Amino acid sequence: MKFFGKSFGKFFALQAIFVAFILSLLIISTVSAQDAVATNPDLYRVLLDNERVRVLDQNVPAGRRENMHSHPAVVKYTLSSYRGTVSYLNGSATSMRRINPGQVMWFEPETHSQKNSGRTNMHTIMFELKGAQIVQSEKQQVSDDPLVTAAKFHKLLFENDRVRVFMFRLKPKEETPAHYHRDGVVYILNGGTLSETLADGKSHDVTLTTHDVKWMDAKTHKVKNTGTDEIRMLIVELKD
Question: CATH: 3.40.50.2300, 3.30.460.10, 2.60.120.10, 2.40.160.20. Which one for 138-238?
Answer without folding.
Answer: 2.60.120.10
